[in-house]
Amino acid sequence: RLPLRVALYIALLGPVAALLLYAGSDRWFYPELLPAAWTLGPLQEQLGSPRTREAILTSLLIAGSVTGLSLLIGLPAAYVLGLRRFCGRLAVLLLLFLPSVVPPLATGMGLNILFLRLGLAGGVLGVVLVHLVPVLPYTVFALLGVFARYDEGYEQQARTLGAGRAQVIWRVTLPLAGPGIIVAGLFAFLVSWSQYVLTLLIGGGQVISLPLLLFAAVSGGRPASIATLALIFAAPPLLAIALASRALAGGTARVEQQY
Predict the structure, then answer these.
(1) Domains plus CATH for the chain?
(2) Is this model's pTM higher than 0.90 or not?
(3) pLDDT by residue (tens digit) across 214-252?
């Protein structure tokens, strides 16, 4: 298994290592294996740039808002779709799945016309709403797996013991669905964070997120600056994955201690 693990680590960490080398290099020319000089200049330049800081804050605001809204909408939707059987359920699931297969350019062009008429184009609110289109399917389908194995008997026992609806949701439903909510929130954040086409179409060049800034740098920037922006772009998703993994591991450990 060792060669397979080594190959997996190289495949996963190789691109990150290359970005680190480029971001920290001052002079690196072929055929040199490593840079001739090292510097933190590109990182300091990007973090000191008001445009980069604004793009980071805008991306965090959009991705955080989309994550919260998608969970707020997707949790009750997945609860009903996972536990109830009703006429038209398959049609609803199909409609939820369609944004995942329709090209985002086609979706964005149609929504751009609608948002222009509604006055939502060119603002953060419009970008947040349009990000919900590709994000909601991931959120709902991630939570569907949770509620497909969900036992409503726990809720009935809580009601029998005198718990109100709010107490049942807060003390029973949310804790039982906690791991699925973490995974769904992680998917929502990652999908929204990486959106480029929809942000460009609806934002109209007025909402500058980090993906837009990165693509603009790729078209004519220096390799060190591009690598630095790519590392900054990758940092929040990696942090979110690490926090989600720790939360899931902590929840599993608590369950094992209870049993």
Answers:
(1) 51-258 (1.10.3720.10)
(2) no
(3) 888 887 767 788 888 888 888 888 888 888 888 777 654
